[in-house]
Every structure is written in structure tokens, then in C-alpha cells.
Specification:
Alpha-D-Glucose-1,6-Bisphosphate, Chain A, domain 4, 2 domains, eight-stranded antiparallel beta sheet, ASHA1/2-like_C, elongated, alpha+beta, Activator of Hsp90 ATPase homologue 1/2-like C-terminal domain-containing protein, START-like_dom_sf
Length: 329
Amino acid sequence: MPVTDVTTDAESLTMTVVADFAAPIERVWSAYADPRQLERFWGPPGWPATFTAFDHTVGGMAQYTMAGPRGERSSGSWEFLEIDEPRGFAVIDRFVDDEGRPLEGFPSLRMTFSFEEAGDGTRMVTTSHFDSIEALEQVVEMGAIEGTRMAMAQLDAVLQDLRAYAQGKGTRVEELDDTHVRITRLVEGPRELVWRAHHDPDLLRQWMLGPDGWEMTECVVALAPGDRHSTSWAPVGETEGEAFGFEGEALLVEAPRRAVTTERMKGTEGPETLNDLNLYEEDGATLITLLIEYPDKGTRDMILATGMADGMEASYARLERDVLVASGR
């Protein structure tokens, strides 16, 4: 985890975040100076940001919106006060509405970002300055500390070349907390085709089969919020096992970038999970990220113990081999 320390100081009315990255200072600077890179980590998992304005000059403004998995929205703006490339910058950070107007009842704060060389990498120190103890406590109560830790944990993937970060590492499972798991897999192919492979029933039947010896017997895809999805599998030939399936509802669909659905096993009342699929392309390769929210730790552990990750790896390998390669990418 890049974040090494988060402290709050009631006397100085500050919150300070210290993070260390295995990348040169110029590379870390560029991640904060480019809105397309910022979007990949400015916001915790499940709340990706979209920057709609970014005037990276003193006196310039940036505006962003973070979208939650159930359609929630939280917007903010930066007013750039100082820019000292590549050593740091300072902004006024505000909570705003969709038109960029400051929200009443929410604090504005001055944030300073400082980058310094630390061995072979870079240390970042971010200090947020508040006008009152009430404003500091309000931001902390809103989950700023844990949200910052989880957001910064995504920066490692941004700072590295995507293939260097994920190629050859298969399906990776990270337990973010008691109820959230992040699953990542790099596949060689453009994002548009990977998206279509997730939403075209004919393509899904070719690869989303888990271990060999299974077939998909039903495939109903949700293409818009409110649509229902339903998939079923059954063993083939001498393969052992019982038929099973999942169903749920699409909550958010932003082709070809993001899709959020609920999911539960057919014939049961639950437990229900929230599945947040994100696709990011770089240089012809696509990083598939699936953030799963479980109702509790027991459900999380029970599902992970089924060997789910192994089945997903078999499916992703089939996606590359039988769908992406066959298409000529």
C-alpha cells in the first residue's frame, strides 16, 4: 500500500497524508498533471472520477465528478493556487454541484501536494488545511482517511506501464476490506472488443465457462440500467457437478468503460453481491477490474473459498485465446 501514514492535527487544523511510490518524481508529477491519469485513482474503488474541466494553470479550475455504483454522485472542484513542476502544487478544494457551484454546508479546504525524491522513488506529502475543527471532523466522518488510503492504492497501476504492471500475472485477487474484493486481469485486446465480449451473448457463451467441461445453457445480458441479467451453466459429458446460475439487475451501464450489476444465485434469496466492472485500455491491452461488494465478511470468505478465482482465470484465458485472438484484435 503506497500510503504510509495519515494523521490529523486538531491544533493546526490539518490532515496530512504521506505516501511512497517506486517511481521517479517526474512520473508521479505527470500522474497528477494529466486528468486522464487522475481519473484512474482520484476516487476510491467503486467511485471513479471523471474530470470535465482541467485548466492546469495558476488561477485555473478543474472540476470532477465521482460516480458511485448505485448512481450516487459527488462532485468537486480545484482552484490552482500554486504550481511548481515537478515539486508540487496547491489548490482550493471545494464540494460543488453539477454546475460547479459550491455546496452549502460542506467545507472548502486548501490542499498542498509536495513531491520529493526518496531513494529510488518519490515521497508525496499531501496536507489539507481546514478553517475549523468542525470542518476537519466533518471530512473525517465522511470517510476521508480510508477513502484516501484506498484511492492511493490504485496509483501504483497508473505509474507503471500497464503490461509491466499486470502482464503474465494472471487473475489477481485483493481483499480491500471485510466486504470488498478487487479482481484484476490484463488481456491483450482493445477495450471495445473486451466490452462486447462481456455483453454479446454469442461471445459470452464462448469464454465465460470456468474450468473445462462446462457449458453455458442460458445467457440473458443486461444492456441498460434496470435490465435483468440471467446466466446458467451445466456440466458436459463426464464432468461432475450440478447445474447452477446467477441473476440480477444492472444498476449502471457506461459503455465501453463501466457496468455495475447486482448478482445472486438462482433459486435463493441471497446473499446478493454488487459487481462493478471497469475496463481500461493502454497500448492495445485492456485491464479488466472487477470490484465485488459482499454483504459481510463471512459471505466474502465463503465465496472466495469456492475456487472462484481459478474459474475466472480459466475463463479469461479462454477470452484471450478464443475471442480476442480469433478476432485478430
